Fold these 2 entries.
Entry 1:
Amino acid sequence: MKVPNRTMHLDALVFDAFGTLFDVRSVDGRCEAFWPGKGTELSALWRTTQLEYSWLRSLMQRYVDFETVTREALGAACAALGLACDDARVAALLQAYRELAPFPEVARVLGRLEGRRRAILSNGSPAMLQAVVRHAAIGPHIDKILSVDSVRIYKPDPRVYQLAVDALEIPRDRIGFVSSNFWDVSGAKAFGFRVFWVNRSGRPADALGVAPDRTLDNLERIFEHIDGAMPEIM
Ligand code: LAC
């Protein structure tokens, strides 16, 4: 027998940015144009290196902002693959990162969440986040853009998740946190948010001792799990 899902009462939805609202793999084409046959591999390694560097710098207590981490990770990923990378390519790819494509349903879902507080909580630097939100034209649907830059440590440090509680003045168990990154899901759940894991590609969960409240195959599915969802506007 199928047990009906209880919906959750949430006063705010807080979204991770890179990989959740914005498709980090939308730079693959630019990478492929620069390094034919190697672009996709480079793009994947760039992203994993970027995340590793954010965690390592947090552990080392050597914060630099995410734009710097992203640039340094690009250099390291090119070096690991033996690809030559000059300043012009680095600049072009960092600009492409500020123009990442949003996933197709993002604007529609954020629009339908009107009436609740909607925020972004991201590793991204304030300038990167402002740029990518502006480029995707979703600014009108976002009430607050929160960057780790104000606490100078990266996710999944609990001080980052606390930023959302403080900025929104909403208790953690009334905040729904939405991320595609399982390590971020784990950090948010350990902190005490209600957590939605957007698992677009059917990946297995990591074994980090916490589980999301709900798993969605795209952002649109969130309306099946929250109280008082606005009707879909066609
Ligand atoms: C972020 C990255 C980590 O937006 O996805 O926080």
Entry 2:
Amino acid sequence: MNEETKRWIAQDKAHCWHPFTRQAEWCSEAHEPLVLTRGKGAWIWDSEGRKYLDGNSSIWTNIHGHGHPRITAAIERQLREVAHSSYLGFANPRAGELAERLCALWPRGELERVFFSDDGSTAVECALKMAIQFRMQTGEPERSGFVAFSDAYHGDTMGAASLGGVSMFFERFRNFGMPVHFVSGMEDLAELPEESTQSLAAVVVEPRIQGVNQMRPWPAGMLRGLRDWCDRRGVHLIADEVMTGFGRTGTMFACQAENVAPDFLCVAKGLSGGFLPLAATLTTREIYDAFLGGPERTFFYGHSYTASQLGCAAALASLDIFADDRVLECLQPKIDRMAELLRDLKQRSPCFHDARQCGFVAGIELRHPDGTPFPPERRIGEAVCLAARPHGLLTRPILDTIVLMPPLCTTTDELELAVAAIAMAVEDCRGAMNAC
Ligand code: PMP
């Protein structure tokens, strides 16, 4: 290990605290974290000069590849003007243009207003607060509850976290959040007594696929059915497209595959192409109009870096790339190739239990050949991802599901390499799996 790497790791272990991380284990002598220092296209390098395909798009953010020259140039151009200015009481040219272009990605009049924030959690948090305040200002204050789906994930701030259905993350905070009723799917929702739907402000959903729930797609038509259910009961629909937005599932937004327009759309991760923290909550004219009038109707929400000029400049460049490089058209054959590769993968080992795919997002679930899950404490998913590194793939599991969602710019050759790395890693871990 080179001296710089040693120093960076020592500083990290002495002072840093990582998300979702068992810190005692992280800081132990035996653990040698990778220090990531450089990226280009779908590839990322560590401080020892080793190169990996970025198999989870740097936690689901990167869209067109690292160091994309157009996004880099846009950020540099913006830096020469101003890096940041307050959005509280002032406008900025990049945010205005970005808001107009985000709305234009929807049929005219469907989503007309954009509220900027910083990350996926705050995009959802804004939608929740807007949904409640809207009811207070339209004579239905009793409509303050939410429906969310079991095993959903919507972020970690207290409001967004309370919509989360993954007990490991959220259970201990259950009493501190919003009033939420959890349902497992449309059948469960249909059984909600009509009276109880009258206290609902909104339903929150990850459209087409639940990400943190080990990449689990919804049945086709679910979203359309949910939109109709909401319309019949006057309940708003909040679409959390923090993961699915910006082409991941094959259409610009997952909702568009089922011709659904939500009342609130939350986007983040890929909005800036994965270059800078930026998020947005889009909503309709009807909802926005309820915030007009007296000062008490103001939406009191905002962060210091709201509508960051750098982030907005990156996002505009990302949208240009989508249009000029016909990114979504070029993606379709890669999605088809991914489906073939996943089919073949299932032949490679009886431990490939299921390979779920939605667009360019896949979750490859590992189990014993007889279908029983591995004991969670054996952390087989983690072991396989570690074993994939020497084969040139960097990704993270969700339990024993290996996530494969590389940047949209990934070529079919690179995709083949990624899937081959997973197959080899599983082979390398055969002993550990057999021992479970
Ligand atoms: N919603 C969904 C569907 C997500 O997948 C995530 C993050 N994985 C979030 C919200 C939270 O986003 P962030 O981590 O940017 O706060």
